[in-house]
From TrEMBL:
InterPro entries, alphabetized: Cation-dep_OMT, SAM-dependent_MTases_sf, SAM_O-MeTrfase
Domain of life: Bacteria
Protein name as it appears in the record: O-methyltransferase
One matching Pfam family: Methyltransf_3
Upper taxonomic lineage: Bacteria, Pseudomonadati, Bacteroidota, Bacteroidia, Bacteroidales
Length: 215
């Protein structure tokens, strides 16, 4: 961690001990621990949830549960967070941390692809954190806005937060060098920027967040 990063960490709200433990355990046990949101992004997600006061949150891509627990900490009592993970091997670890957290009872963990699970949950979501497979980002967006089956999963005023939308800077590489992940992230960002139904701003925190509000 460089001096500026250390400064940011030291002068932001500290990481909850349970989240610190989850970060460490993820680093010991998970195949790609870098996928975890981490202290500062987790605190930002918590803050955004606290400000938007959603009653119903959807997360696409639970991984070990760090971002779900961060968002749940910002949720009011009675509000709920549905988090969807396609890899059933992650279920036990994520659920064990949800069970230990005072905010865990607000979280419902679903195993399966969000493209199947989310529409089946019914209703609309006030806030969505998109953090699944980058190659599927355009499909997640179509699903959420109702462009797949005519039934939107969001409403006017809903907030979408998409992670990794700078994809380690590869989004500005020449077209010929782009792999499938990069192509999909570039397509997603363009879809959002050209969609008159939403307004958005890209925040260059960590690997980039696209903050999107449905008009
Ligand atoms: C970047 S990680 C999520 C990190 C987590 N949100 C956090 O901040 O700690 C992406 C996760 O999405 C999952 N995933 C990929 N495709 C998915 C899909 N279609 N539906 C649900 N989860 C999916 C992967 O298995 C992986 O665990």
């Amino acid at each position: 961690m460089d001096a500026l990063e250390r400064y940011i960490h030291d002068l932001s709200a500290p990481e909850e001990p349970l989240l610190h433990e989850l970060d460490r355990e993820t680093n010991l046990r998970a195949v790609a621990p870098r996928m975890l949101s981490g202290h500062i992004q987790g605190r930002l997600l918590e803050m955004l949830v606290r400000m938007a006061q959603p009653q119903r949150v959807l997360e696409i891509g639970t991984f070990t549960g760090y971002s779900a627990l961060s968002m749940a900490a910002g949720l009011e009592e009675g509000a709920e967070l549905h988090t969807v993970e396609v890899d059933d091997e992650l279920e036990e670890l994520a659920q064990s941390y949800f069970d230990r957290s005072p905010h865990g009872k607000k979280i419902r963990l679903h195993i399966g692809s969000a493209l199947d699970v989310a529409p089946a949950l019914g209703g609309v979501f006030d806030l969505v954190f998109i953090d699944g497979d980058k190659r599927e980002y355009p499909d997640y967006y179509r699903m959420l806005l109702g462009d797949r089956d005519g039934r939107p999963l969001v409403r006017s005023g809903s907030v979408l937060i998409a992670d990794n939308i700078l994809w380690s800077g590869k989004v500005v590489e020449p077209v010929a060098r782009r792999d499938r992940h990069t192509q999909a992230v570039v397509e997603f960002n363009r879809m959002v920027a050209e969609d008159p139904r939403v307004e958005n701003v890209i925040v260059p925190l960590r690997d980039g967040l696209n903050l999107i509000r449905v008009k």
